[in-house]
Amino acid sequence: PGEISDLAGGRRNFKTIEKTGPPHDLQATLREYQLAGFQWMHFLARHGLHGILADDMGLGKTLQSLTHILHE
Predict the structure, then answer these.
(1) Residue 10 clears pLDDT 70, i.e. is over it
(2) Helix axes 61-71, 32-46, angle to 10 degrees
(3) Which of 15, 24, 20 has the alpha carbon at shortest distance from 38?
């Protein structure tokens, strides 16, 4: 199917995850690793992929997830 071909084409040309900034109305400051987690979730969603944010406890998974939801 076309979706698989698009995904394969994107994978061949993949260099890095796009550096997406957090939403302007986010009322929090993300740490560098939290921003990277948010960008990773945005990358997955943009390409129709699925994944799990599996950081250790206390590193801000909730904030990263809420940032992604706010961005969507």
Answers:
(1) no
(2) 50
(3) 20
Read off the amino acid at residue 7.
L
Find the mean pLDDT for residues 36-61.
91
What would you measure as the largest C-alpha separation in the chain, in angstroms?
Answer: 41
CA distances, 54 to each of 22, 33, 49 (Å)? 20, 12, 16
Angstrom distance (rounded) from CA 45 to CA 48: 5
For residues 60 and 23, give the distance between their C-alpha atoms in angstroms, rounded to a whole number: 17
Q: Which stretches within the chain are classed as H helix?
A: 2-12, 32-46, 61-71
pLDDT at 8 over 80: no
